[in-house]
């Protein structure tokens, strides 16, 4: 019993709050999906699509994803370093500041205080709160690593450390602005420069927030769930360093055919294709770790979530580079295909891995066995179905939309007016709204299962914890 | 056994930061030397006036960029639909840029001057009254809000845009609706509007090739409902645009007006529909003459 006493309470609190913000993100997402088919659901001035959509994305990224990463980083870092958290007090303060920031973010976005940059809408005072949060979080994690009791840093710690640095660099550079009043500022960059900086930030937020942290979680929780080590240490080294190096070159694939220099676009396109290799390095590492263990897909519900999660990561990192090719981008950019792509990553890859980690932690944070494995399976199938309907319907919609936009008659005239292309989207928009309802049903089952675990789960034998 | 970076966090963090910074410097820092230089300058592109800036900030506040892009790509269909492709020099005064990433609604990079002010006032307040089946939210509440001249003056100072005292005092009593319409009318006008949307075709016929074609007449009526009703009324009685009930125009002249538009009167060009569809509209309009 020389095990150090880990701080589990802070992990539990962050899980609860991130789940709450996740539910908010999905509910707002469902609302805006219905607004797209019925504009009467817009309630100006505060609840129009234009103000709610940033609330949806910010609640999803900052509330659900980053909130969950706070929880899981705190959990993993203690065990990988074999010592308690460097500062419990700072972590507790971070929890309060996190929730305060999310609430302020939601209120200010609804009031229309926005920098308008995608995934960086929060105005400068809220930006400062985000920076303070990230700094105290980073200090706590890094000090725990520096004062660790384990010599080697496991793979997950590399992904965690790199994400801490990456987010800091991206966020600070992209938030440079000149304040005019308490909630209005103007970007430090103008025009095409501003666009290039923004998408360097925007795409690498995908790297540093929606790729590295979930990979850290995957590398930790897959072996924990299966009881079998990761297939290749060397492969994880190669995949990690090439991923961190290559990602930063690709931002301009969001700006193909726009007035930024061609060479920047070409580099972005080339590196996007090359990124397939390190991305699939992790996918293959995950698959090969399952050698002789594939029967666990049937027997161990945790493995289903993790392997489907990494599979969607694999699909995402094939589809993304495809979209980064100039010719395909010319066709598909600005259409509904893109939200289909984004949500495969958000609902498939990131969320499935988070669900798995939370299930794994449930007995450890509540001291009880999971209330119901059948309910966990129901949750799995509902969110899988919701996500697939969302993505597939939007891919089909995007192809049709692009086809209508680009259709030209023999006399060189446009075949369809813009409105005809929008009206053609309405059936798909209905399907998308339905997919969100299915997804939230799955999440409701998940939360019910956790709540029942906390209240009625069988107490654990003292050995487990 | 292990690389030193695997057991020394400081070494690891330094290497990770270096890996992140290489691509950052090349693709984010270096382009500053290529963008917004003298080579990008376009003579007619001027900073926003106080009223236009106020409108731009309303556009930002309402999140219009979540559905509308402001950059036209050099692709055939895109240039036909929206006008000449965007140049870097057109955006030098834009902080932040508003290029957007999705087109739930149409691109607005060259919306300026396409429609008369009255069209925008009505469309903003009640989009479906102008564009049936549109899913744009209604922004009538902008009519009830006045702009704040003092705040705008401060903003002009921060952005170092030139302005006159008259311009600022002229803002008194202006609504946010006035502002956003002014901004709409500014968009894309800094460049010669070389609208490439004139469909190359052999010389236009002198008379309507669909003269006695009942099917074409029905299609013409449909096209009229889609593209003309908002300004000229369901009974051709007029509204934002003039009445079309007693035109006294020849087919060929009417064709020219619809095909090429009359920019100074706020009549958009419909060349991108192609000659056949314009002839069908001509046929329908002529069939409705008193």
From TrEMBL, chain A:
It is a multi-pass membrane protein. This is Cbb3-type cytochrome c oxidase subunit I. Its main location: membrane. Residues 14-465 form the Cytochrome oxidase subunit I profile domain. The lineage of its organism: Bacteria, Pseudomonadati, Thermodesulfobacteriota, Desulfuromonadia, Desulfuromonadales. It comes from the Bacteria. Pfam families: COX1. Belongs to the heme-copper respiratory oxidase family. It is found in: Membrane. PANTHER family: CYTOCHROME C OXIDASE SUBUNIT 1, CYTOCHROME C OXIDASE SUBUNIT 1 HOMOLOG, BACTEROID. The chain crosses the membrane at residues 14-37, 57-75, 95-114, 126-146, 158-180, 200-222, 234-257, 263-289, 301-322, 342-362, 374-396, 429-451. Keywords: Electron transport, Heme, Iron, Membrane, Metal-binding, Respiratory chain, Transmembrane, Transmembrane helix, Transport.
TrEMBL record, chain B:
The chain crosses the membrane at residues 12-34. Residues 50-188, 215-289 form the Cytochrome c domain. Keywords: Electron transport, Heme, Iron, Membrane, Metal-binding, Transmembrane, Transmembrane helix, Transport. InterPro entries: Cyt_c-like_dom (IPR009056), Cyt_c-like_dom_sf (IPR036909), Cyt_c_oxidase_monohaem-su/FixO (IPR003468), Cytochrome_c550/c551-like (IPR051811). It holds the Pfam family Cytochrome_CBB3. It comes from the Bacteria. Coiled coil: none annotated. PANTHER family: CYTOCHROME C-553-LIKE, MENAQUINOL-CYTOCHROME C REDUCTASE CYTOCHROME B_C SUBUNIT. NCBIfam families: PRK14487.1. This is Cbb3-type cytochrome c oxidase subunit II. It comes from Geoalkalibacter halelectricus. The lineage of its organism: Bacteria, Pseudomonadati, Thermodesulfobacteriota, Desulfuromonadia, Desulfuromonadales.
């Amino acid at each position: 019993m020389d095990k150090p006493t880990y701080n589990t309470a802070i992990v539990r609190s962050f899980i609860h709050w991130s789940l709450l913000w996740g539910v908010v993100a999905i509910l707002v997402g469902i609302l805006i999906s219905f607004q797209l088919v019925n504009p009467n659901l817009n309630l100006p001035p505060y609840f129009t699509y234009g103000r709610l959509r940033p609330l949806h994305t910010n609640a999803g990224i900052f509330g659900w994803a980053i909130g969950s990463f706070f929880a899981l980083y705190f959990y993993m870092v203690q065990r990988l370093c074999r010592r308690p958290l460097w500062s419990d007090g700072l972590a507790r303060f971070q929890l309060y500041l996190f929730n305060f920031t999310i609430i302020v973010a939601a209120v200010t976005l609804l009031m229309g205080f926005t920098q308008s940059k995608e995934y960086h809408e929060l105005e400068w005072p809220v930006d400062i709160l985000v920076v303070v949060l990230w700094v105290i979080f980073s200090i706590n994690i890094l000090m725990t690593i520096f004062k660790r009791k384990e010599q080697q840093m496991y793979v997950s710690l590399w992904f965690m450390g790199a994400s801490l640095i990456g987010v800091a660099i991206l966020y600070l550079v992209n938030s440079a602005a000149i304040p005019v009043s308490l909630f209005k500022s103007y970007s430090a960059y103008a025009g095409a420069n501003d666009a290039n900086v923004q998408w360097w930030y925007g795409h690498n937020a995908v790297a540093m927030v929606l790729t590295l942290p979930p990979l850290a979680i995957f590398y930790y929780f897959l072996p924990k769930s299966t009881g079998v080590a990761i297939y290749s240490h060397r492969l994880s080294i190669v995949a990690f360093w090439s991923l961190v190096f290559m990602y930063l070159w690709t931002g301009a694939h969001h700006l193909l055919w726009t007035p930024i220099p061609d060479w920047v676009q070409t580099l972005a396109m080339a590196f996007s294709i090359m990124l397939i290799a390190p991305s699939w390095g992790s996918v293959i590492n995950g698959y090969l770790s399952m050698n002789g263990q594939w029967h666990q897909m049937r027997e161990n519900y945790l493995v289903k979530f993790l392997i489907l999660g990494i599979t969607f990561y694999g699909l995402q990192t094939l589809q993304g580079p495809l979209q980064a090719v100039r010719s395909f981008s010319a066709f598909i950019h600005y259409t509904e295909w893109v939200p289909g792509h984004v949500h495969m990553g958000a609902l498939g890859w990131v969320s499935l891995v988070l669900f798995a980690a939370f299930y794994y932690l449930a007995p450890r944070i509540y001291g009880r066995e999971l209330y119901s494995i059948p309910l966990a399976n129901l949750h799995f199938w509902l969110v899988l179905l919701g996500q697939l309907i969302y993505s597939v319907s939007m891919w089909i919609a995007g192809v049709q939309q692009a086809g209508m936009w680009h259709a030209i008659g023999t006399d060189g005239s446009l075949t369809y007016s813009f409105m005809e292309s929008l009206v053609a989207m309405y059936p798909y928009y209905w399907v998308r709204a339905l997919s969100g309802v299915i997804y939230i049903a799955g999440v409701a089952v998940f939360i019910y299962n956790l709540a029942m675990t906390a209240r009625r789960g069988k107490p654990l034998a003292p050995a487990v914890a | 056994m292990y690389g030193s970076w695997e057991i020394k966090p400081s070494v690891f963090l330094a290497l990770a930061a270096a890996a992140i910074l290489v691509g950052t410097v090349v693709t984010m820092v270096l382009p500053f030397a290529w963008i917004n230089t003298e080579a990008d300058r376009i003579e007619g592109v001027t900073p926003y006036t106080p009223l236009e800036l106020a409108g731009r900030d309303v556009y930002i506040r309402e999140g219009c960029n979540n559905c509308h892009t402001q950059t036209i790509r050099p692709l055939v269909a895109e240039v036909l639909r929206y006008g000449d492709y965007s140049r870097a020099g057109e955006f030098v005064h834009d902080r932040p840029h508003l290029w957007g990433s999705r087109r739930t609604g149409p691109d607005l990079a060259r919306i300026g001057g396409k429609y008369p002010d009255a069209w925008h006032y009505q469309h903003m307040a009640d989009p479906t009254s102008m564009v049936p089946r549109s899913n744009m939210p209604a922004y009538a509440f902008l009519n009830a809000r006045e702009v704040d001249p003092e705040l705008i003056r401060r903003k002009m100072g921060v952005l170092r845009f030139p302005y006159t005292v008259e311009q600022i005092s002229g803002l008194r009593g202006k609504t946010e609706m006035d502002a956003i319409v002014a901004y709409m009318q500014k968009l894309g006008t800094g460049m010669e509007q070389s609208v490439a949307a004139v469909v190359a075709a052999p010389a236009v016929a002198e008379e309507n090739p669909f003269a006695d074609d009942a099917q074409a007449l029905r299609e013409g009526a449909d096209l009229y409902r889609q593209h003309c009703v908002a300004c000229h009324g369901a009974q051709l009685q007029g509204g934002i645009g003039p009445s079309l009930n007693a035109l006294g125009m020849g087919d060929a002249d009417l064709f020219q007006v619809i095909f090429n538009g009359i920019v100074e009167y706020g009549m958009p060009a419909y060349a991108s529909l192609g000659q056949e569809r314009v002839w069908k509209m001509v046929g329908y309009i002529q069939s409705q003459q008193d």
